[in-house]
Design brief:
By secondary structure, this protein is of the alpha/beta class. It folds into two domains: 132 residues, Lyase, Ornithine Decarboxylase, Chain A, domain 1; 242 residues, TIM Barrel, CATH 3.20.20.10. The chain is 28% helix and 25% strand. It is built from ten helices and 19 strands. Strands 1, 12, 13, 14, 15, 16, 17, 18 and 19 form a nine-stranded mixed β-sheet that branches. The chain starts with a helix and ends in a 14-residue tail after the last strand. The relative contact order is 0.15. Bound molecules: pyridoxal-5'-phosphate (PLP). Pyridoxal-5'-phosphate binds next to helix 10.
Length: 391
């Protein structure tokens, strides 16, 4: 089916989830790392995109799951049937119920603080990682993890609670507030140097813990990586620094964007075309920041389905009565009219999961497997807004 036929069948807007692309992204990402560090393990970062077909593809592709809330744990362990030993429980605010489930399944819990070690032990967790706090790319102090200078004491505390410190982890964040303006800024992918710095720090801490009897078998570098083939540079540099530091264990990675960003597109429709008082062409569309909230700081590439005529700038706006409901401030687009179809490219990471019901209920998802597009998730009905009796 063409995009036009899919829209006619399932309505507009419509999420297009390319499972084949996801699968090949994962395969190529893992291969790039294993060429440099054979014992590389991948835990797909569920928070990035939880379309079930992607989660199944991750499991079939040999990836574990990095989860940050109980629903994600239940998806991984209950629905996708990931071996709990390959589930990584991360996140800054793990409820007791999540810790209890992780304990029962034997998942690896990445402790965010000393206090969390105590709660984890109280709920029966036996195997933990310590998340090491790294400053943000803006230079700001992070709120995630335990400062490097306190890792040795935290490992001692863990041992005192009967916990095995199996891993040291970190994650190089991709978004933050710019210190001067307070604006949201994005930095993705993070550079090979940033990951080398993180790997060197974690490997150094692992050696420091050894004399105290802690054998850190796994170094977990989180996410923030580009997709293959670009990630090969990161892999080579990280493997080099781990070898130089004498680390010989497993390397765990939690990629999100690298695997799923370009596996999803959003098809949507121009509802109205007008010229603003300042002469700009404005396209009012049926999708906006309600579906692609990341457009506020990082507008997606937008293309027209039909490419006839010369390209010129257009302000692409959504259906909300917010001046900030802008998908793109100046997309290069051909002449368009009401009913024209637009495609937002590479919106697989953090958009569907963060989309809202501000305006209409959420749209349907179609998925491509074996060359065919099929309905994956129907559009939410009006019942999702409480309007169960529509006249
Ligand atoms: C702990 C952790 N791991 C992995 C990821 C995935 O990061 P990315 O999508 O940049 O690969 C995130 C994203 O926020 C994260 O917080």
């Amino acid at each position: 089916m063409t995009v036009g036929e899919l829209l006619a069948e399932y309505g507009s807007p419509l999420w297009l989830a390319d499972v084949e692309r996801f699968r090949s992204n994962l395969r190529r990402f893992a291969a790039a790392w294993r060429r440099e560090w054979p014992d590389t393990r991948i835990a797909y970062s569920y928070k990035t995109n939880r379309v079930l077909a992607f989660l199944q593809a991750a499991e079939l592709g040999g990836a574990g799951a990095e989860v940050v809330c109980e629903s994600e744990y239940l998806l991984a362990a209950g629905v996708i049937e990931v071996d709990p030993a390959r589930i990584i429980v991360d996140g800054p605010a793990k409820p007791d119920s999540l810790l209890a489930r992780a304990a029962a399944g034997g998942a690896l819990v990445l402790a965010d603080s000393r206090g969390e070690l105590e709660r984890a032990a109280a709920h029966g967790v036996r195997r933990v990682g310590l998340r090491v706090a790294l400053d943000s790319f803006t230079g700001a102090c992070t709120r995630f993890g335990i400062p490097p200078a306190e890792i040795s004491a935290a490992a001692g505390a863990a041992a005192g609670l009967g916990l095995t410190v199996a891993a040291l982890s970190t994650h190089l964040v991709s978004t933050d507030f710019e210190p001067a303006s307070g604006r949201i800024v994005a930095s993705w992918p993070r550079s090979p140097d940033d990951h080398v710095g993180a790997a060197a720090l974690l490997a150094g801490l692992a050696s420091e813990l050894r004399p105290a009897g802690h054998h850190v078998a796994t170094i977990d570098l989180g996410g923030g990586f580009p997709a293959a083939p670009a990630v090969a540079t990161h892999a080579r540099a990280v493997a080099g620094v781990l070898r130089a530091a004498g680390f010989a264990g497993a390397l765990l990675l939690e990629p999100g964007r690298a695997i799923v960003a370009d596996a999803v597109e959003l098809a949507f429709t121009v509802i109205a075309v007008k010229t603003l008082a300042d002469g700009r062409r404005c396209l009012a569309c049926d999708a906006g920041i309600n579906l692609v909230p990341g457009a506020l700081s990082d507008p997606p590439r937008i293309e027209a389905l039909e490419r006839h005529g010369a390209l010129s700038e257009a302000l692409v706006t959504g259906p909300l009565c917010l001046n900030t409901d802008v998908l793109h401030p100046a997309a290069q687009l051909p002449p368009l009219k009401p009913g024209s179809v637009l495609i937002a490219r590479s919106v697989g990471a953090y958009q569907q999961v963060a989309s809202t019901q501000f305006g209409e209920p959420r749209p349907a998802v179609v998925a491509r497997e074996h060359g065919e597009w099929c309905l994956h998730t129907p559009a939410e009905g009006q019942g999702a807004l409480g309007a169960v009796r529509v006249p």
